[in-house]
């Protein structure tokens, strides 16, 4: 039987064999560990780490600044520093906590589900400091807890000093802990070796005594075999102990090299952090200097355009200022032109021909106006339009209960109640692009295509001014639904829209003016709900054609983003780039809509652009905001500014004349906040009119009920109309299937044989796109009053 003392080595067993001395290995291990380089034991102040950190509270308040204190393995937080003496808001024991990093500034501390802190530092450097301090405190707390549970450990917690800010201290502690464990195991093996030697010697003495009896025959052979095996067992045990001793010595030797390498890495990391922080400060200084130089050259009117909520952020101490993300630097810089340019004649100066100088004279007239017309020729309104609609009812609705199952889906396929709508259709919203039609009127009278480009570009921006407060969703038009906007007697134009496709939803628009311009477009709206925000991507090209000069312009729309879909106040942003191209002359205007940035010091909702000829030479600079106004400046000279470039990119510096206003938003009607923030034109869009087509949006019953404030009835009527549309689509699909069967050919047979009534599908000769173009006949049909060909969709 085995001796029970071989199965467990404890203090009582060692005391039982009191004559066994303490192993030299144990002394060697103690000496090696205790002789390793150590930093002084930190003071209580050094073990404490304090600072402000942003803590996630809830979806309403978001991140709130809290005062956190890390001490003795416990992380506590307070609302203010003054609360430290009496009110603690929460505490987590780091010994059992997990620390994870989300991104550059965010990190999470959790103790297994009962407590979880979602934290955000002011910058990446500060986050790393907190992570380092937390990991160090966690390792120390875990070690202290383990040592308190093991009374036989000869190493005190103070044997492994740690100081806040050491990025590798936790790894160093793990190395030393492993060495202590190995040393303890080798001591146990050494004690076992002593026991084996003792009992082996006793066994050999007993065998020798048996051998001295001079036993013969089989018994003597057995005794000799047992003696040999006992000797081999003892040799093997000694070899095992020696191998373990060599392993420990090797581990100790390598641990010193590891510690030196880790210390070097820690010092290098500290130097890199300091260098990175210094570079961030220098970059911030350069950004501020560059921004200050650019703003010094801006006009006072451009600064006043910020208005309430759009001002620049106040300057703070540079040492305490950090940014999660810097805003994009402008692509060009404008500076006032030399005064000599104002005095020169209209002759060829600095690369500008005489024609352009004449244009400059027309553009710098104040105010900007069309060619003079006699009062007898002016068109005056013949009908008084309404200026009010019923106030929006205050109905509450849980948005999340509807939207939570719609994440990632196409918005046009989501059944939405009218509570999220505004009482106009998408066709009427499309017609609102003509709110500032006078820009096209002025453009049609321009002598120069470059001057005309300025007005067309301003018109492309003006269509977004109505969206700044309009967070309601327009009604999705039914297939075949139309909308006419006849302002020929008042403003000289008339417009027609028709829903030409349902999936994907597409609307065709055609407007013609007696003042020499035509506007047409087909817009398909792609929209996605992303959980926190809604992205609306208009697809399609807008065409503007002018009779004078036969100039043909095209451009596309930018992306609209609706923020705070779930919690908070809804707000809208426009971002992206627009290229307005004159396909007749090759002129081009590149407009950039700057996305909103919390840290930006620039004007909110800013739009900038440059008008260039076909050779890429700049002639005008446009600037302003898409919700307020646009200005233009005549470029007199341009150069490449190397000293203002960043990351090796040079920026173009334009010397310009004084900025002139080309467009300004009309003020909202009185009480607009209770009328869906409709403009004066939008208030008239759904006003009942006689003689319109039976498919006109004004005749849509659910939309009319909503405008009247009867939302429950509007929801029921909306469901009825949508089901009627689905039934009509299924009927068309059956007809298409029967046509395929009769023709015995499935190739080329339409799945849905619907064709638009007033528009026909063809290839655009300019862009090559397949789109619907107005084929005529609507206004003639209206004059006759014969609408027999219109479908029954309502």
From TrEMBL:
Instruction: Give the matching SMART domains.
Output: PH (SM00233)
For the keyword Acetylation, the answer is no
Annotated region described as Disordered, given as residue ranges: 146-177, 295-318, 688-751
The protein's predominant localisation is: membrane
List all membrane-crossing ranges: none
Q: Where is the composition biased (Polar residues)?
A: 168-177
Coiled-coil positions are: 255-289
Q: How does it sit in the membrane?
A: Peripheral membrane protein
Q: Which GO terms describe its biological process?
A: lipid transport
- Single GO molecular-function term? sterol binding
GO CC, any one term: perinuclear endoplasmic reticulum
The cellular location(s) given in this protein's UniProt record come to: Membrane
Reply yes or no: does the keyword Coiled coil apply: yes
| Compositionally biased residues, Basic and acidic residues | 696-737
PANTHER family associated with the record: OXYSTEROL-BINDING PROTEIN 1 (PTHR10972:SF205), OXYSTEROL-BINDING PROTEIN-RELATED (PTHR10972)
Q: Which family does it belong to?
A: Belongs to the OSBP family.
What name appears for this protein in its UniProt entry? Oxysterol-binding protein
Origin organism of this chain?
A: Xyrichtys novacula (Pearly razorfish)
């Amino acid at each position: 039987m085995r001796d029970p003392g071989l199965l467990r080595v404890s203090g009582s067993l060692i005391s039982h064999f009191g004559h066994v001395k303490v192993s030299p290995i144990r002394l060697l291990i103690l000496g090696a560990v205790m002789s390793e380089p150590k930093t002084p034991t930190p003071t209580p102040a050094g073990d404490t780490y304090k600072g402000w950190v942003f803590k996630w509270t809830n979806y309403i308040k978001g991140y709130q600044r809290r005062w956190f204190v890390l001490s003795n393995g416990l992380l506590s937080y307070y609302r203010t520093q003054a609360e430290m003496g009496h009110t603690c808001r929460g505490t987590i024991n780091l010994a059992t906590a997990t620390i994870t990093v989300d991104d550059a500034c965010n990190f999470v501390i959790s103790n297994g589900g009962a407590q979880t802190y979602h934290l955000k530092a002011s910058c990446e450097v500060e986050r790393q400091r907190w992570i380092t301090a937390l990991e160090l405190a966690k390792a120390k707390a875990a070690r202290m807890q383990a040592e308190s549970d093991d009374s036989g450990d000869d190493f005190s917690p103070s044997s492994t000093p740690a100081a806040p800010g050491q990025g590798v201290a936790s790894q160093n502690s793990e190395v030393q802990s492993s060495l202590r464990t190995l040393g303890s195991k080798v001591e146990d093996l050494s004690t076992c070796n002593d026991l084996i030697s003792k009992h082996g010697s006793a066994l050999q003495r007993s065998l020798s005594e048996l051998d001295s009896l001079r036993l013969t025959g089989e018994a003597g052979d057995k005794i000799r075999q047992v003696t040999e095996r006992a000797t081999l067992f003892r040799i093997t045990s000694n070899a095992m102990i020696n191998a373990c001793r060599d392993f420990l010595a090797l581990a100790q030797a390598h641990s010193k090299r590891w510690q030196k390498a880790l210390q070097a890495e820690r010092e290098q990391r500290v130097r890199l952090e300091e260098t990175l922080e210094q570079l961030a400060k220098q970059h911030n200084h350069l950004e501020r200097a560059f921004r200050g130089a650019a703003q010094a050259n801006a006009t006072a009117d451009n600064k006043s355009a910020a208005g309430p909520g759009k001002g620049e952020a106040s300057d703070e101490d540079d040492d305490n200022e950090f940014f999660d993300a810097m805003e994009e630097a402008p692509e060009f810089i404008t500076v006032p032109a030399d005064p000599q340019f104002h005095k020169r004649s209209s002759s060829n100066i600095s690369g500008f021909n005489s024609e352009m100088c004449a244009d400059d004279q027309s553009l710098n007239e104040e105010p900007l106006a069309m060619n003079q017309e006699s009062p007898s020729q002016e068109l005056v309104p013949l009908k008084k339009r309404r200026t009010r609609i019923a106030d929006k009812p205050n109905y509450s609705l849980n948005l999340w209960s509807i939207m939570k199952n719609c994440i990632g889906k196409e918005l046009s396929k989501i059944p939405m109640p009218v509570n999220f709508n505004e009482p106009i259709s998408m066709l009427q919203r499309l017609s609102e692009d003509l709110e500032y039609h006078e820009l096209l009127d002025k453009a049609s009278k321009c002598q120069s295509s470059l001057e005309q480009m300025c007005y067309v570009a301003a018109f492309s921006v003006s269509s977004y001014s109505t969206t700044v407060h309009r967070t309601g969703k327009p009604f999705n038009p039914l297939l075949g639904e139309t909308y006419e906007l006849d302002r020929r007697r008042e403003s000289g134009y008339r417009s027609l829209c028709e829903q030409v496709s349902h999936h994907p939803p597409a609307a065709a628009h055609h407007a013609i003016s007696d003042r020499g311009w035509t506007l047409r477009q087909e817009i398909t709206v792609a929209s996605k709900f992303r959980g926190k925000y809604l992205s609306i991507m208009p697809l399609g090209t807008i065409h503007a054609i002018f009779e004078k000069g036969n100039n043909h312009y095209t451009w596309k729309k930018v992306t609209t983003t609706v923020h705070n879909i779930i919690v908070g106040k809804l707000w809208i942003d426009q971002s992206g780039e627009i290229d307005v191209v004159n396909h007749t002359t090759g002129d081009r205007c590149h407009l950039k809509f700057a996305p909103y940035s919390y840290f930006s010091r620039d004007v909110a909702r800013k739009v900038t652009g440059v008008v260039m000829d076909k050779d890429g030479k700049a002639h005008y600079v446009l600037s302003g905001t898409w919700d307020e106004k646009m200005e233009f400046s005549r470029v007199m000279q341009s150069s490449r500014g190397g000293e203002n470039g960043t990351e090796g990119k040079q920026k173009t510096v334009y010397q310009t004349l004084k900025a002139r206003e080309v467009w300004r938003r009309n003020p909202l009607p009185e009480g607009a906040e209770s009328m869906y923030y409709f403009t004066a034109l939008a208030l008239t869009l759904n006003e009942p009119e006689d003689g319109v087509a039976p498919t006109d949006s004004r005749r849509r019953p659910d939309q009319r009920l909503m405008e009247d404030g009867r939302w429950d009835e509007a929801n029921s009527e909306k469901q009825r109309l949508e089901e009627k549309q689905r039934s009509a689509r299924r009927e068309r699909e059956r007809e298409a299937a029967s046509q395929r069967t009769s023709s015995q050919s499935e190739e080329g047979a339409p799945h849905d044989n619907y064709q638009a009534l007033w528009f026909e599908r063809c290839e655009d000769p300019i862009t090559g796109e397949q789109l619907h173009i107005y084929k005529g006949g609507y206004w003639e049909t209206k004059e006759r009053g014969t609408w027999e060909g219109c479908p029954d969709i309502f």
